[in-house]
Amino acid sequence: MKVLVLDISSDYAHFRKPYTTTSALTYSIPPRTAVLGIIGSILGISSGGFGKSEHSKFFETNNVKTGVRLLTSIKKTTFNLKYLHTKNGGSILVPVECVVSPIYRIYVSGNEDFLAKLESVVKNKECYYTPYLGISEFLASVSYVGFFEGKRVDEIPTLVDSVIYLFDKGEIKFESGLNLFHETHAVRMDCERKVQEYSEIVYEENGKKIQLLKKSEKTSVISLVIGEQKEVIMLV
Q: What value does the mean pLDDT take over residues 205-230?
């Protein structure tokens, strides 16, 4: 399996949790739907307009799978952002929680032609749209890491470097010295932006490895050698 690896960073990131109202809380890790949106902006794939997610069909057709690894410790802050009342006029200050100076390693697999095009665009810094991390003011820097041959890991338990998607059957080992957190992420949407599938995800606050005891059939565990370092990742 071929895997394209990118590093994406920004001064701030905000991936809004949909169930918050009076304040805008953020996920620490970009959901898979956000990762696909970033890839879509890099390639110039149209979502179909406001309230649409037509690019999801493109990624399904090209058998795209992604994974995320945290390269920095999670730190958050809150800003008061001014929003306009489009109906009544005036403005309102809304507290918005943000991840500070995040760096995420993104792993992408898929059809050969799709990966070749994405690799060319990223290597030559020719993004079609300007990528950002959740809010348009949080412009993202996209760095090409490399194109690697991945080997499927069948021997589990194993230590995993990336975020772990549990779905319905995944299990991890809780160990002292790890600051483990979980979030519920949207994994798949239809063309009308209706969520078709969710998953619990687990990450370590400082990016440390997590021992996977059991994985869902919906995920793949892959081993890569990047430079002199071996990375074990989960794709979904």
A: 96
pLDDT at 103: 99
List phi, psi (to 5°) of 189. -125, 155
In the prediction, which pLDDT does 18 show? 86
Assess whether pLDDT exceeds 90 at residue 75: yes
pLDDT tier at 83, thresholds 50, 70, 90: confident
Q: Comparing 168 with 26, which gets the higher pLDDT?
A: 26
Q: How far apart are CA 40 and CA 34, in angstroms?
A: 10
With a threshold of 0.90, does the pTM exceed it?
yes
**Angle ∠(100,106,109) on CA atoms, nearest 5:** 165
CATH topology of domain 2-235: Alpha-Beta Plaits (3.30.70)
Q: Averaged over 68-92, what is the pLDDT?
A: 89
* Per-residue DSSP letter, 220: E
Task: Output the six-digit token pair for 194.
Answer: 């209706």
Query: Which of 37, 60, 33, 39 is CA-nearest to residue 47?
Result: 37
* Distances 177 to 165, 207, 230 between C-alpha atoms, Å: 21, 12, 22
Dihedral, 14, 70, 18, 94 alpha carbons, nearest 10: -30
**Quick one: which of 27, 59, 231, 42 has its CA closest to 148?**
231
User: Partners of 195 in the beta sheet?
Assistant: 189
Residue 15 identity: F
C-alpha to C-alpha distance for 130 and 117, rounded to whole angstroms: 17
The answer to whether the Cα torsion of 192, 45, 59, 213 is positive or negative is negative
Tell me 152's DSSP state.
Answer: E
